[in-house]
Amino acid sequence: MVEYSPLLLRSLSGQAQRRSVRGMLLGAKKGNRIEVHGFHGSGDQNLDTRYPAVGIYVVRARGEVFLTEADLAFLEQSGLPIALVIAGGRGGFFFWEPDRAGAGIDSRRSIQSIKSYQEFSTAGQATAREPRRIADILRRALFASIP
C-alpha cells in the first residue's frame, strides 16, 4: 500500500511547466506499506535527509500516465521499487513485481510500464490510499525486492 498526502500530489503536479521532470520520492517502508513524505528533484539543492528514497517520480505537463523507456531506465538505475507518474491532472503508481515464471533464486521481475494499475486524479481531493488490489500487488513486489 502506498500512502501519500493530497498536498504532495499538488506540489509534484506544479513541478512540470513545459518539460518532464524527475526525482526521488522520500519516505519510509513500514511493513507492507510505503509512506511517501516528500520528494527531491534532480536539480534541488536542499535534500531532506530525514527520509530515505523509496521510489522515483516523473511529472509531465500533459499526456498519458505511463513510463517511457527513459523513465524505466531511471527506475532501474535507482534500484527502488515504485514510480509515480503524473501527467496533466492524472497520476498512477508503477511497481516491480515478480515474474510468474521467475520462481527460485534467480527470480526475475517485471513492471507494467504502459499503464498504471489504477489512475487517479491529482486535482482536488486526491485519495490518500490506493485500492486493495494495488496494495496486494505492491506487497508482493516489496517483499520480493526490498530486504
What is this structure, in a nutshell?
With 147 residues, this protein is α+β, with helices and mostly antiparallel strands. The chain is 22% helix and 32% strand. The chain has helices spanning 6-13, 69-78, 132-145, and strands spanning 2-3, 21-30, 33-41, 53-60, 82-87, 90-95, 97-98, 109-110, 120-121.
Strand proportion: 25-35%
| Percentage of residues assigned to helices | 10-25%
Rounded mean pLDDT is: 78
Following the backbone from N to C, one meets helices and strands in this order, namely EHEEEHEEEEEH
Question: With helices defined by DSSP (H or I, 4 residues minimum), what is the helix count?
Answer: 3
Major sheet description: 7 strands, mixed
Radius of gyration: 14 Å
Low-confidence runs of at least 5 consecutive residues: 125-133
CATH class: Alpha Beta
Number of domains: 1
Number of strands: 9
**Would you tell me the structural class of the helices and strands?**
alpha+beta
Cα(first) to Cα(last) distance is 17 Å
Q: What would you note in describing this structure?
A:
There is one protein chain. With 147 residues, this protein is an alpha+beta fold. It has a single domain (2-145), classed as Cytidine Deaminase, domain 2 (3-Layer(aba) Sandwich), CATH 3.40.140. Helices cover 22% and strands 32% of the residues. It is built from three helices and nine strands, in the order E-H-E-E-E-H-E-E-E-E-E-H. The chain has helices at 6-13, 69-78, 132-145, and strands at 2-3, 21-30, 33-41, 53-60, 82-87, 90-95, 97-98, 109-110, 120-121. Mean pLDDT is 78; it is low at 125-133.
